Amino acid sequence: MSVDGALARVIRSAAADRDDGERCDLCAEPVPEQHRHLYAAEREELLCACGACTVLFTGDGAGGGRYLLVPRRRVRLEPVDTGPLGVPVGLVFFVPHTDGTVTAQGPSPAGAMRWEVDAARWTRMRAVCPPLVTMAPEVEALLVNTVRGLDHHWIVPVDDCFRMVALVRREWRGLAGGGRVWPAVERFFEELTERS
Are residues 152 and 181 in the same domain? Predict the structure, then answer.
């Protein structure tokens, strides 16, 4: 266990006693509802971050490159045929990694299901859809929704994808999802349009 990790946990624990608001996962300062996230590559974990920590712990700062700032851009794409990637679900996101691998994750009532995507197939997909070449590894994803006749394809920050996974998990009822999950997913994509 690293010293800075242990110290951060102690600070967060003490701060948690002060109030129930969201706090920076690195220094325990309060953060606004719309705050930035850092990606801890070693732990594959998203961290809430205050403004100071987004500067301090990224790039050449104290984090020494261990943390990546999750970007904010959202780009709607023309429909892309993701069938050749071999993922059997219509609501899924694809994350390229710095080592050249690509994972696909789809929401479920139990959280995110994960698949490895053939790297050669992903390379062919990038040739067909040039905006995919601009994606930042680890922190941006191709988010696809072809469920119920929809055809949404976006480049989004990974925190949007995990927000969607949490939404599906929260709204899912029964074996097929019930009457709440799919309208909630449609609202999620409407909000992406408003934010972009």
Answer: yes
Q: Are 97 and 151 in contact (CB under 8 A)?
A: no
Residues 181 and 106 in one domain: yes
52 shares a domain with 93: no
What would the pLDDT profile of 96-107 be if each residue is shown by its tens digit?
999 999 999 998
Q: Could you say which DSSP state residue 109 is in?
A: T
pLDDT digits (tens, 9 = 90+) for 155-164: 999 999 999 9
Question: Are residues 54 and 123 located together in one domain of the fold?
Answer: no
Contacts 24+ apart (CB under 8 A), 157-163: 157/37, 157/70, 157/71, 157/72, 157/73, 157/74, 158/39, 158/46, 158/70, 158/93, 158/95, 159/37, 159/46, 159/70, 160/74, 160/192, 161/93, 161/95, 161/105, 162/46, 162/112, 163/188
Closest CA to 31 of 16, 17, 51: 51
pTM: 0.82
Closest by CA to 62, choosing from 77, 76, 52, 75, is 52
Using the structure block, give the residue that is written with the tokens 């925190």.
Answer: 159
